[in-house]
Structures
1.
Amino acid sequence: MRILLVEDDAELARRLASALGEAGFAVDYASDGEDALLMGETQAFDAVVLDLGLPKLSGLEVLRRWRRAGLDTPVLVLTARDAWTERVEGLNAGADDYMGKPFQAAEVVARLRALLRRSAGGASPVLRVGDVTLDPGAGIVEVEGRSVDLTAREIRILSYLMHRSGRIVSQNELMDHVYAMDDMRESNTIEVYVARLRKKLGREAIRTIRGLGYRMG
């Protein structure tokens, strides 16, 4: 799953991006409101971590413009502002969740996973499609109760497909959501990873819809 991190404190952004990466997310970064606005409108993200106190354009204004443009990506607001009126203002502008600084990176990760579950229409922290289960928090994958070892990239692709169970996901969509902008991308990479997943999970776990993409469930 791909996350846009918007934070003007470089050291805080570095630490948070590291924690998100270790949790299995692909992370892109913006340090001001203007870059965040453009990236959110032109790139595919599964969720956004947004600071309100940004240079050039406030996080609150970025959020308002995204929502006016019809962008419904889940947004977790991070801010040093702790007045209840500002929290309400952020939520009314379209934020899905709100955390004040200072915070623990592990809680940010947990809240993001909860946002992603809700946006996919689920509540359980464990994803289940057919005989395959994935616990994103623990990085545990099982097929019919049998543990399966997957690489971080394989888990990222599997997680995206499981969050969209029953839907067709194109190769381009997978590419956009499991790689950050700076990651190396090759045209056949997704095919290679899907083939590996089928070997480990079973050939019927991921179906190919010819000419369209892949589907689980």
2.
Amino acid sequence: MSHYIDPERAQFEAFKALDRDQPIEMLNLVKFRDQAAYPADHALAEAGLSAAEAYANYGRETGPIIARLGASIIWRGNWQTTLIGPADETWDEMFIARYPTAHAFLEMVTDPDYRKAVVHRQAAVATSRLIRTSPAQGGATFG
């Protein structure tokens, strides 16, 4: 499984080039490491935290930030099995976060408190997918 933890420069530039004034929904698929891997100089480097514990730290520290920006988690699920797709892609966290605008997301990732908190995510995540979508109307059919 490939390791995708932070966006690459080209991906982030493509994100920023899209309309920033509309609501966005970010599909998050997260696979944890076996153990949290903090930088050696971090206070939790020797704490022996599981990746799930480190990710919980990330959630606690970023919760007030996303609330202040008007964002929320609108869907959360638990992975069961993959019917179509790579069999080695299993996910420990799956959720959709809604942001009132892409500006709000960009404000979040540049917030000084968020930048401190993201170390917990980096310590926890083995690989992830973060997919920007625009909200669309649901319905009774696939198409």
3.
Amino acid sequence: MTEQDDPEREYDLRWADSAEHKEPSARARMLAARWKHSPPEPVPFRADPEGRAPRRSSWISTAVVLGCVVTVIVVLGYINFRAPY
């Protein structure tokens, strides 16, 4: 009987999750080794990017979009009104 046929040797996720010691991933090991010699600089959460223009109000964008929609509706209505039947 081969190991592939043995149902008792099937990988059990619950058994793996209950392990006392879990080995870190390769990336975690690499970063830990790198940071041991040169730790990273502290970075504030969601820092403002430098050189970027300040955001405009969302009301301006909303007004522009609604203005475009109204213009398209008026133009289409005028075309339909002027069309001969």
4.
Amino acid sequence: MFCVYLLYSFKYQNSYTGMTSDLITRFQSHNYKSTKGFTIKYRPWFCIHVEFIQG
């Protein structure tokens, strides 16, 4: 099962939309584990919306 998620950075007033099959691991990647990419510049991220998709 996949989900589409919306993250929001209150500190930078920026949003990010993504899709994953493992929301917890992906969220941790956005906030802690990643060392490069778009989302590291706007930490911390808060998950403000999730929609699950059955396929």
